[in-house]
Amino acid sequence: MSQTKFSTHPTSDKVYYIISGFILTFILIAVSYPLIYVLSASFSSGNAVSSGQVLLWPVDFSLEGYEAVFKNKDIVRAYGNTFLYTILGTLVNVSVVMTCAYALSRPGLKGRGGFMFLFTFTMFFSGGLIPFYILMKDLHLINTMWAMVLPGALSVYNMIIARTFIQSSIPGELIEATSIDGCSDARFFFSFVLPLSKAVIAVITLFSAVGHWNAYFNALMYLNDRSLYPLQIILREILIMNQVDVSMIMDPELQVAKAQAAAVLKYSLIVVATVPILCVYPFIQKYFVKGVMIGSLKG
Amino acid sequence: MPSWQLYLFLIPATVYIIIFAYVPMAGVQIAFKNFNFNLGIWGSEWIGLDNFRRFFDSYQFTTLIWNTISLSVYSLLISFPLPILFALVLNSFTGLKFKKIVQSVSYMPHFISTVVIVGMLVQLFNPRTGAFGALYTYFSGELLADAFANPGAFQHLYVWSGIWQGIGWSSIIYIAALSSVDEHLHEAAQIDGASRLQRVRHIDFPSILPTATIMLILAVGNIMEVGFEKVFLMQNELNISKSEVISTYVYKVGLTIGSGDFSFATAIGLFNSLINFVLLIMVNYAAKKFSNTSLW
Question: Which residue in A51, A55, A52 sits closest to A37, CA to CA?
């Protein structure tokens, strides 16, 4: 094929670009349509949603779905719980990951290989569901908020990303120079490593925060006190199991509209539950490729 | 010379990993025991392979294995190549702004929780009120069949919603690998008269092959680990014949009120990870042999 004439190329390339333009446009539409639909439905009236009139844009604009969401005590409380678990959990994750990654990034550390093995081994083997459950029970973590914060406090994958990042972006000469000036390892960590690792800290923070915000499984397993429930458990009840306590949603005089209100409530709830995370990610997007590449290719 | 302070920094992570990873690993022994809460993990009586035998003999064994394997193989066959194709097409496209938009939008669903994804599926495929139900009625005049009541639709819903959610995110690693391809290769090929498609095939594609091999090894090594959460959330009495997989079964046997057969559930889980591990070793070996790329 390398013998084809040069003059024919622009045409064949044009065809290539047209086809790939179609493919990309298709993917763009396919990915964004459900998102746009959910957003539009959440701003439509209950009547329009439950009769299937919404196809792309909001029909009969209204905020009744959002009103219903914020009038539901279960949702509001669960929202608060999720915020708490996310902030606390992310704080724990990032501290444990960064301290560990920093220590393991130092070539002179005795027993470094042993520690690395101890950590990476757990990526391939685990006790599985039941032994973990027994552990949580033995530690009396069942039905406490720590059941949402502690499991997964150390993500070995994130730790390897951070370690590789520190190794490759903070020169060894800096450590030597500062240690001659009497800078301790701990001070070096706080005044040099942390400020210079902003990119990787941002990525790990986002990954951890998303994980905690979306956590569902731990709550299902380890919580049975309703007042501790995170958002995702309530979401499951309403979105999937269809248990909307309509009496909590609307004022009595709007009884007729209850079923319709339940329909919009679901879409508004999806938006309310998802927007905080989607708001954070554009700020951190620029670090993704770097973070993922360091972690996967060199790790 | 590193100081004691570094070891201090290692303490939180080490303590955590010993308690939360190694203690449960030791707990796996209950798969070979008749676990009794009062006697604890170490005190319970050994019963050898009885739990495993019980699982192999159970009438659900074949269904569970089949559901687990067919779902993950189907998922792998679709979700492994598509992000690669997406990355190749996106990378070779010219419009920079359009590329950025497509990329940003395609990442987004990755950040949506599994509960919301399944919730959206339930809503959107609702024959009467959902978007796809409404569109279907709009174009055909008929009512869409209820997808969640149809066992045959379960796997398709699972896999294709997974593509919707993951295609952008999974392609990041390939896009990253493509960004390091030497521009001179492309220039040289262009001078030799290679078309855009030829350059994608002979320059871009080979350059991401090592990354793809690693991803494939990891994916095959996880083939028995069908995502518990999503399957569990999508399950209902109507589609259970296709949707019961090993992980959901372990959960039900072990932790649903009324059963609580810890030893039996652990044995099934262990059997599952064993298959996974064997697959990982086999694929890694094959990859090493054929392409010189491997995990270790």
Answer: A55
User: Between chains, do A13 and B176 touch, taking CB under 8 Å as contact?
Assistant: no
Judged by DSSP in three states, A54 sits in coil
Q: How open is the CA angle A187-A192-A193, to the nearest 5 degrees?
A: 95
Contact assignment for B8 to A126 by CB distance below 8 Å: no
| Cβ separation B113–A135 shorter than 8 A | no
Q: Which residues pair with B46 in a beta bridge?
A: B33
DSSP state, residue A296: I
Strands B45-46 and B33-34: antiparallel
Q: What's residue A4's pLDDT? A: 43
Q: Which two tokens stand for residue B257?
A: 């009120």
Q: Helices B151-178 and B81-92 sit at what angle, rounded to 10 degrees? A: 40
Residues in CB range of B278: below 8 A, 6 or more apart: none
What torsion do the CA atoms of B31, B36, B42, B48 make, to the nearest 10 degrees? -40
Query: Tens of pLDDT along A184-195?
Result: 888 888 888 888
For residue A163, count other CB atoms closer than 10 A to its CB: 25
Instruction: Round the average pLDDT of chain B to a whole number and report it.
Output: 86
CA-closest candidate to residue A277, choices B287, B116, B10:
B116
Of the residues B9, B161, B191, B251, the best mutation for testing chain A's interface (the one with the most A CB atoms within 10 Å of its CB) is B9
CB atoms within 10 A of CB A227: 9
Token pair recorded at residue A111? 């027993």
Give the separation between CA B192 and CA B195, rounded to whole angstroms: 9
Q: For residue A175, what is the enclosing H or E element? A: helix A172-180
Angle at B72 between CA B69 and CA B78, to 5 degrees: 135
- Of the candidates A119, A125, A117, A131, which has an alpha carbon nearest to the alpha carbon of residue B277? A125
d(CA B32, CA B36): 12
